[in-house]
Amino acid sequence: MTRRVEVGPQLISSTSPYFHDIVSWAWRRARELATRMGSSVETLRPDHLYGEEAQNIGYMLKVGEIYPGNVLPERTYLVIYGIFNTDETLDYVQISDGRRTYDWYVLPVLYFTERIAVWGEGPIVLDAYSTKLVVHSLDPNRDRVYAWLLGFVIKPRQQQSQEVSTERRRRRR
User: Fold this and answer.
1) What's the CATH class of domain 11-156?
2) Is it the case that residue 96 has pLDDT exceeding 70?
3) DSSP-derived 3-state class of residue 138
4) E strand map for the chain
5) Measured between alpha carbons, how far is 33 from 7 in angstroms, rounded to an integer?
6) 113-125: per-residue pLDDT in tens?
7) pLDDT value at position 146?
8) Residue 112: its pLDDT value, please?
9) Quick one: pLDDT at residue 43?
């Protein structure tokens, strides 16, 4: 009996005619979700993954497990659609939200012309609170890799506290 292994969607190079369609699709999904929830859309930045530690790390991925839910507020979503990779030791990124797991084998992106790729199946929408990212390097001594996930963060808008005025002034005539 042979075991059937299914190969998932491929990472698509920026030279592909479908590249911009997938980026647009990710943006539409993020805007749609934000509109439905009354939230705002931001581009994925280091402070979304690392919090205050982001100043020391910058736009690099830490090797090991990353939990965005430790930094981002509740009801925050991630829309991840691609990766930028210039590191020859980064071989895969695993993205999991507790229900589904995506394994992105990203080493070939290093050999793409612009070293950028999008997920051929389209954007992945994840609840940030339950998301876990696992970044793996071929070099066991590395603590970070020169790569960054491309995506959007849908964050709830912060309510501005409005004081209720109990006293009304009369208008002068």
Assistant:
1) mainly beta
2) yes
3) coil
4) 11-13, 39-43, 61-62, 64-66, 77-85, 90-96, 101-105, 116-119, 124-127, 132-137, 144-145, 147-156
5) 29
6) 889 999 988 899 9
7) 95
8) 87
9) 95
* Predicted model pTM: 0.83
pLDDT digits (tens, 9 = 90+) for 39-50: 999 999 999 999
Q: Distance between CA 153 and CA 98 in Å, rounded?
A: 19
Enter the tokens of residue 109.
């992106």
Sole residue written with tokens 């998932």 = 8
* DSSP assignment letter at 107: G
Contact 121, 9 (CB under 8 A): yes
Nearest to 83 by CA among 133, 128, 41: 133
Identify which of 135, 129, 151 has the alpha carbon closest to the alpha carbon of residue 46.
Answer: 151
Largest CA distance in the chain: 94
pLDDT of 7 > 50? The answer is no
Q: Is the Cβ–Cβ distance between 77 and 125 less than 8 Å? A: yes
d(CA 83, CA 95): 12
Phi, psi (degrees; rounded to nearest 5) at 159: -75, 130
pLDDT of residue 113: 84
105 vs 103: CA distance, rounded Å: 6
Name the token pair of 145.
Answer: 């890799």
